[in-house]
């Protein structure tokens, strides 16, 4: 039986802002079921590393693999950037991040926040997305809050809602 590809592999990621080297060759393998914690002082590069992994920031050097597929880069007059933005969109559909500020849309209910990407990005039927979203909200203990708006939720509930959305 062939080995399944590692869902996320990062090799030797380096990131500079001007002359300041923030990431000095970080590598990571994240396999299905892994729980990974990044620990470091404020300003040590934890968020920059995460932003480089999903290409919200462009790493200056290094390699990214998602389910065995290498993300291709090219050099431009502005520096290094992905060679194929469609590949990045496909990669982001397979990986999710929960940010410190959660980024739930205030004008949408929790259920609407959770179904937004499956319906509009993954092109799932609204019925299927709602069914799956309700199961995820139940899993994070928010089934009874599906019709609440983010402002009606505590910070912890918002975070769990963002986790359900990421799943």
TrEMBL record:
It is found in: Cell membrane. One of its GO terms (molecular function) is ATP binding. InterPro entries: ABC_transporter-like_ATP-bd, MetN_ABC_transporter-like, P-loop_NTPase. The keyword Nucleotide-binding applies. Its main location: membrane. Keywords: ATP-binding, Nucleotide-binding, Transport. It holds the Pfam family ABC_tran. GO terms for cellular component: plasma membrane. It is a peripheral membrane protein. This is ATP-binding cassette domain-containing protein. It comes from Parasedimentitalea maritima.
């Amino acid at each position: 039986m062939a080995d399944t590809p590692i869902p996320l592999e990062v090799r030797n990621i380096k990131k500079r802002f001007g002359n300041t080297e923030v990431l000095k060759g970080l590598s990571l393998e994240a396999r299905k079921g892994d729980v990974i914690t990044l620990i470091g002082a404020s300003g040590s590069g934890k968020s920059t590393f995460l932003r480089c992994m999903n290409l919200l920031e462009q790493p200056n050097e290094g390699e990214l693999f998602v389910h065995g597929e290498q993300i291709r880069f090219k050099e431009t007059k502005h520096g290094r950037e992905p060679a194929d933005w469609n590949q990045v969109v496909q990669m982001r559909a397979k990986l999710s991040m929960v940010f410190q500020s959660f980024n739930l849309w205030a004008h949408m209910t929790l259920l609407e926040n959770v179904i937004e990407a499956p319906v509009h990005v993954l092109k799932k039927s609204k019925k299927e997305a709602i069914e799956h979203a309700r199961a995820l909200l139940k899993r994070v203990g928010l089934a009874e809050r599906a019709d609440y708006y983010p402002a009606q939720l505590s910070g912890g509930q918002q975070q769990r809602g963002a986790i359900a959305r990421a799943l």
